[in-house]
Amino acid sequence: MYRIGELAGLAEVSARTIDYYTSLGLIAPAARSDKNYRLYNDETLERLQRIEQLKKDKYTLDEIKANLDSWSKVTPEEQVSRRLTDLQLHLSQLEREVKELEPVIKKLKPRQANHLYTRLMPQTAACIEALMILINKGPLM
User: DSSP H helical segments within the chain, as ranges?
Assistant: First the structure.
């Protein structure tokens, strides 16, 4: 069990951030110490790290809260659902990134696009191609 300062250090966020997330209901202390300190467990640390990653991926705190609520379930069916939700979130983030890059890609000349395409890792290029098709923009090449 971690006190708030220890949790903040492990998650590389401030104690004020933890207080804020607690007030929003994104995280909650697992228990209280004899001296009434809030105590957090490893699950809370993982949840906090997930929140920070989603923030870096440009999700709003409301979106994060909605997704975390769905991830809190622990039955096998819900674990599969959680994994699918994770994949859906990842796909949404990739779609956002493709949309951000779309103006740059459109400005490339065919030779520049080909050069860029050949320098990408094959898996990355395949993902970009698939995303471009999924959002109905056609293939990169």
Answer: 4-11, 15-24, 42-56, 61-71, 76-107, 110-119, 122-134
* Structure confidence by residue, pLDDT tens digits, 6-51: 999 999 999 999 999 999 989 999 999 899 989 999 889 988 998 9
Residues 9 and 33 sit within 8 Å (Cβ to Cβ): no
Q: How many residues does the chain have?
A: 141
CA atoms within 13 A on the CB side of 134: 13
Number of C-beta neighbours around residue 133 at 10 A: 12
Output the CA angle 54-3-55, nearest 5 degrees.
10
CA–CA dist 88, 82 (Å, integer):
10
- Residue 9: strand, helix, or coil: helix
Q: What is the residue whose two structure tokens read 């103006």?
A: 103
Structure tokens at 70: 């769905």
Helices (H), 12-41: 15-24
Which position has the token pair 């991926």?
57
60 in helix, strand or coil? Answer: coil
Question: What's the pTM?
Answer: 0.51
Give the span between the Cα atoms of 59 and 77, in whole angstroms: 25
